[in-house]
Design goal:
This protein has 198 residues and is α+β, with helices and mostly antiparallel strands. It has 6 helices and 5 strands; from the N terminus they run αβααβββαβαα. Strands 1-2-3-4-5 form a 5-stranded mixed beta sheet.
Length: 198
């Protein structure tokens, strides 16, 4: 049976792109997500780092990622209910762009009301608007509620793939099962010679 579209509160909610003035809210939501994922100590984001790395409608070029925020209908609550932070990616086999959802978070008091479904619907629409063919994201293995939610929408688990990462941070974080000693990205970058985009 095909999933049904959002109704009620979520259908009446406002979804919009985040602006620079929303950065404190974005940071708060990121911290809430990191806490939920039991990794708050691994969260190094700051307002300054978000301002310098996110794209905003008033200045869309410099940043690397975009953020959608969802707000309940004005009569119910002025508080932001959640976010979807994403960036564009590319499939070589399909020769088509797509969207990678870095974070989807709905505050606990707004869960079960269709807000997550609404945000994913907006991302799917954005994917189609750029000629994309794929919307993808990662889920922590222990996060059974989220896995069930995504599967109920028709998402498939990519069991043949394993996420790989090199970074400059020590120890574990972002759901890692094992961490290196840190500095792997710096060491790997030392093997490159630099290529200019001309």
């Amino acid at each position: 049976m095909a999933p049904s579209p959002p109704t009620g509160e979520a259908a009446a909610a406002t979804v919009r792109f985040a602006t620079e003035s929303d950065v404190p809210t974005i940071l708060s939501l990121i911290h809430e997500l990191a806490s939920y994922e039991k990794a708050l100590s691994s969260c190094h984001a700051t307002e300054a780092s978000l301002l310098s790395t996110l794209s905003f409608p008033s200045n869309p070029n410099p940043g690397y990622a975009r953020t959608l925020l969802i707000f309940p209908a004005p009569s119910s609550s002025p508080e932001c209910a959640g976010l979807a932070l994403y960036f564009h990616n590319y499939s070589t086999w399909r020769a088509a762009p797509g969207i990678y959802l870095e974070d989807l978070f709905v505050r606990p008091e707004f869960r079960g009301k269709g807000y997550g479904k609404r945000l994913l619907g907006e991302l799917a629409r954005e994917t189609k608007s750029v000629g994309g063919e794929r919307l993808e994201w990662s889920v922590l293995k222990w996060n059974e509620p989220s896995l069930r939610f995504y599967e109920s929408l028709g998402a498939r688990t990519m069991r043949g793939w394993v996420v790989m990462r090199v970074d400059d941070l020590e120890g574990q974080g972002e759901g890692e099962e094992g961490g290196g000693s840190g500095g792997e990205l710096e060491r790997l970058a030392g093997w490159g010679r630099g290529v200019e985009w001309k």
